[in-house]
Amino acid sequence: MDSILILGDGPLGRAIEAAAHDRADGTQVLGRPVGGQHRPQDLRGADVVVEASRGDAVASNVAAALDAGCRRFVIATTGWSANRAVVDALLREHGAAAVAASNFSLGVVLFGRLVEAAVGLFGPLEGFDPYLLEWHRRSKRDRPSGTATDLARRIADAHPRLTGPGDLEVVSIRAGASPGMHLVGFDAVGETIELRLTARDRSAYAAGVLAAADWLGRAPREAGIHTVDPIVDELIARQPIAA
């Protein structure tokens, strides 16, 4: 049983706490500290630190946890890409490993692969224009979402007529309480094809975070930042996906 320290007491942090509690992991949740920065002495003793707070706090939180002796991290926060190189360097300097993703849902990872396959089919056809729409709760800060940014990159990389994500029509909606919806479409004069993924709650994200924590603990991992893809590949190989 791992001891999991969750940094961030928002909806995602609490969902991870509930999922960890269901499997009898020891957990502690810390909200944003007074002064905005955690002290290393408050982070000691955790086997895994899960970062689920805010993008502008990721680098300082990882630094404090490294000083506290933690060497395994799951970074589930978005909006910190500008500090990715700094965080990766910190991890490598301390011989620590992290899994980072804009979205830890197994469905989202596989959805990205489906989108790439669809672009391979529709991209060469003249007249089919790709587009991306994402909808999240009104309080979500980043626009577009980290998942939408990743999907846009995948589409642009695979599409023969797009030179980059900036060529893709991307629409972000921030309204209500939606936990997350992403829609990728291909529109032509006579027909429209759409792929849609809708999150009902944050349990799928929490399950993926815990799968990443387990992956980090099963074997020594190379220092630095890892993607979620090898974890999903391992899960698919080990257990069938329910229809």
Question: What is the level-2 CATH architecture name of the largest domain?
Answer: 3-Layer(aba) Sandwich
CATH homologous superfamily designation of the largest domain: NAD(P)-binding Rossmann-like Domain
What string gives the helices and strands in order?
EHEEHEHEHEHEEEHEH
Give the oligomer, counting copies of the same chain as homo and different chains as hetero.
single chain
Portion of residues in helices? 25-40%
At the fold tier of CATH, the topology name of the largest domain is Rossmann fold
Which stretches are poorly predicted, pLDDT < 50 over at least 5 residues?
A: none
In the CATH hierarchy, what is the class of the largest domain?
Alpha Beta
> How many E strands?
10
Rg? 19 Å
Q: Distance between the terminal alpha carbons, to the nearest Å?
A: 30 Å
- Sketch the major β-sheet: 6 strands, parallel
| Computed structural class | alpha/beta
Please indicate the count of domains: 2
- Determine the number of helices (DSSP H or I, runs of at least 4 residues): 7
Strand content: 15-25%
